[in-house]
Amino acid sequence: xGEAGHIDPWSSEQSTDYDRISTKFGLDSIxxxxxxxxxxxxxxxxxxxxxxxxxxxxxIYRNEKFGVLTGLMPSGNMHLGHSMVIDQVKWFQEQxxxxxxxxxxxxxxxxxxxxLKKGRxxxxxxxxxxxxxxxxxxxxxxxxxxxxxxxxxxxxxTLGRKTNISEFEAIYGFGGDxxxxxxxAPLVQAGDIVHPQMEEFGGLxxxxxxxxxxxxxxxxxxxxxxxKTNWFNVKxxxxxGLTVALSIQDDNSEIFxxxxxxxVNREVRNNxxxxxxxxxxxxxxxxxxxxxxxxxxxxxxxxxxxxSQLKLNLLRLERKMGGMGFMPPCSTYHRFAVGMTGDKMSxxxxxxxxxxxxxxxxxxxxxxxxxxxxxxxVEEHRRLGGDCSxxxxxxxxxxxxxxxxxxxxxxxxxxxxxxxxxxxMKNICIENATIWLNDLSEKRDEWADRVNEFLAPDAF
Length: 460
Ligand code: TRP
Prior knowledge:
With 460 residues, this protein is of the alpha/beta class. Helix content is 45%, strand content 11%. It contains 17 helices and eleven strands. Strand 9 (289-291) and strand 10 (296-299) form a beta hairpin. The radius of gyration is 25 Å and the shape is elongated. The mean pLDDT is 95. Bound molecules: tryptophan. The site of tryptophan has 15 residues, from strand 3, helix 9 and strand 6.
């Protein structure tokens, strides 16, 4: 976090004080017992926070449609740090989600001076091929380029009407000297995040965006923008139940019965309220108190459990009336794995991480040099044991290479008791990483000529 408390999504320096970040930005914590078929990132507490994940979990439980959206910056090589998001995307896909992948070629141009042509190459040859190798299913994966999807750009522009420079200062710490392409990048990302809900891209359904904490500013921005576009707000009512309130905006004031002179046209307004009532009648509320003049409708008998159904019906109505009808995106957050040197992982410092196409020799060298949690002498190590919380090799087994919890726990126990030495821990890591890298490289070969299967029609 920067001095002023911003998270800078474009910096490789990220705070790892996850408790503080969660409190400060209002993330909810993950309840493992609610996650069906948890993967290792869930089971090992690596995914630590979320916004509105319950909405997605409900879709999973009820077998209803939901989408997963992720994006990649096509600059630099794909490394283990990037693979964590894909592990999650894959998990959501296995639970029934359809997957959209944004190639952030406009963002890479704006913030890294990567040409669109270069961005395309990097995206396909470095990232998408590895996503394929990691097991994403092309049947429900659709990769597109920001520069080639006008709907996303149009949304960026449209959503931009709901924010201003001050908000960008507050969220990102932008100032007067910030390049304007850089200012546009978060708006395009907001477009990325919400556009799968458009009719053309799958229609109204919850979308989840699994990210590292560095991307949370974009999610906060997008959630705020979406809520400002909504035509109907649902709030808890003071005397119990829920209240639906019209949100009058430039785009809808006429539809909502505001005349040129600012007065409310009763007939139009009553008509709107009848439409609201009929749109929520299927939920079956016994008592609805309309107040068309004030633009509110009280449902004393509604409980918080009904909120999502109610909101969904209102978004459908909004769409029928000409609004965009977007739900706020849901998100999950994972901890970062430590860099191999004990510092942060960064693609600009190759010694800090393992790249997806590192050779076994390169990987071995890095692991051998990696920061260890062992004691300085063998005697001491046998007596005091190693420290897994500091040992990079152990952590890489935990985050990436050892999928079996029992085996991992055994390794941990034996390291902490001093039975396993630091060098032996490194060998275990190398052994597992070798299997992992070889498997990935084999799968990459299998996909080499078929990456196109992942591309959306507008990506060619
Ligand atoms: N900003 C992301 C990055 O730096 C890339 C990205 C673009 C993205 N659009 C997205 C990530 C939408 C998640 C969702 O890596």
